């Protein structure tokens, strides 16, 4: 995960090796490499620039009274800024509703159905909740079957209505079913398309308006880098979602989406997907991710 970025940052810090103190020249040289590492990781240009400007100010600032060596100081400043960039604290999900309704949105193939299952499993085991999965992808019968397979695997009930072509009606019926059967969390899996289009946006927006979810989570494949960020922006403009789910981090050697999304849409990454299995889900902790990146 993010191996390229880790390697390149490590090389950037080597610039300061052997230097007794921080100077404008060695800071500039190091940060040039840091910026290059961020851009190679597919971090948005503006984000990378702001990042290095902030680190530069802090490194050269009067208030840096420290016994750290220049290399160590730079690692610390970069780490602090990476944490900030990824949102600072971990963000939870709102489970206060009765039931709490969680709407999943995102492109086809982003990992929505898989993640819906992972989240249901996570809530069931970690938070002793009784989730219900609701299948609202009315275009692909295979997607409904897939959710049933996932539900069977984790022992979570799936609500679907194969003959019904109205996702709003299915979502509402699913919530009623949850109320009648003691489910306290409802996870609504929706249809995605291969790219952002008006029809999909109208549909997800209609569902969103009709069911007023406690949480709307935008699911995106982290391997798509800047495209992930642009898609996040398009969905956020329509849904004003609560948080991002970054899937397929296990295959992402670059990390651009993880590092740019928060600064572009100002919404936290809440969970990450790290594999195809139902337990490959983690709460997103910016500090742990920064530790991982800096090795
Ligand atoms: P959807 O169309 O958005 O519902 O996407 P799916 O849930 O069907 O996922 C698309 C593909 O990505 C499937 O083959 C999943 O097994 C795979 N997938 C989903 N999440 C992850 C993940 O975190 N890591 C990996 N390696 N594969 C994933």
Blueprint of the fold:
Elements: H1 3-14, H2 24-40, H3 45-60, H4 70-85, E1 100-105, H5 112-126, E2 131-135, H6 141-154, E3 158-159, H7 167-180, E4 185-189, H8 198-211, E5 215-221, H9 225-239, E6 243-247, H10 256-265, E7 269-273, E8 281-283, H11 286-294
Helix pairs in contact: 1-2, 2-3, 3-4, 4-11, 5-6, 7-8, 9-10
Bound molecules: guanosine-5'-diphosphate.
Question: What would a concise description of this structure say?
Answer:
It comes from Galbibacter orientalis DSM 19592. The chain is α/β, with parallel strands linked by helices and 295 residues long.
Could you characterize the architecture of this molecule?
Helix content is 52%, strand content 13%. The protein has helices at residues 3-14, 24-40, 45-60, 70-85, 112-126, 141-154, 167-180, 198-211, 225-239, 256-265, 286-294; strands at residues 100-105, 131-135, 158-159, 185-189, 215-221, 243-247, 269-273, 281-283. It has an 8-stranded mixed sheet with strand order 3-2-4-1-5-6-7-8, sandwiched between helices. Helix 3 packs across helix 4 (70-85). The longest helix has 17 residues, at 24-40. It starts with a helix and ends with a helix. The model has no long low-confidence stretch (mean pLDDT 94). Bound molecules: guanosine-5'-diphosphate. Residues 106, 108-114, 192, 247-248, 250-251, 273-276, 280 line the site of guanosine-5'-diphosphate.
